[in-house]
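In this supplementary section we document a worked example of the pipeline. Step one takes a protein sequence of length 230 as its only input; no multiple sequence alignment statistics are reported here. Step two produces a three-dimensional model, which step three serialises into structure tokens for compact storage. The input and output of this example are shown verbatim.
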Amino acid sequence: NLKDSTMEKLADRGNGNYAYLDSLHEARRVLIAEAGATLITVAKDVKIQVEFNPRAVGAYKLIGYENRILAHQDFNNDKKDAGEIGAGHTVTALYEIIPPGEPLDGAGVDPLKYQDGAKPNAAAKSDELMTVKLRYKQPEGDTSKLISVAVRDRAGELTPNLGFASAVAEFGMLLRRSEFKGQATWSSAQELARRYRGDDPDGYRGEFVRLVELAAALDAQNLTSPQSRR
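The serialised model returned by step three reads:
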């Protein structure tokens, strides 16, 4: 009778973490392999803000993190609570990018009558794709510090970690039957996960591949069941 949303609220209010242990293998991962990231906080109230260069990006959408989005003005507000980062903890954020000039499906907003919107300034002419800002507090501090890094606009091969993360995101959108899933399929999620499985000494990524296969089989069974045809 697990209610994930309730567990998440309790963990957020207590600045803690939660996990669902359904096997000894999972308990070993949470309580031994990842204990450092859970028990040792290296930064608190961590906030991330991304600004894309309009010369390179016409529109964008953050995939997931719907319950983690802050108002723009909250980024500099040290009284606004945010997440904690533990030792060895990493965070991956994926964005859907639409190039400038491409049509925006489902925009749903009429053009402005009295203004043309924000115009790019001289900085937009650089080769920067975006600027990533990170604000955090020391574990015992109350005043945040700011780190700002510009990211150059250059394509590159996906690393195994980023490629596998994209497979997980695609799988999540399929499970939710997201309207933004595009041409994603169970097969494409499986193929992506297998291609970027990388080093998998504990078998967690292989377990995810099997999970995708199970979801695909269950979905196919639901589509062919007599009840689904009525």
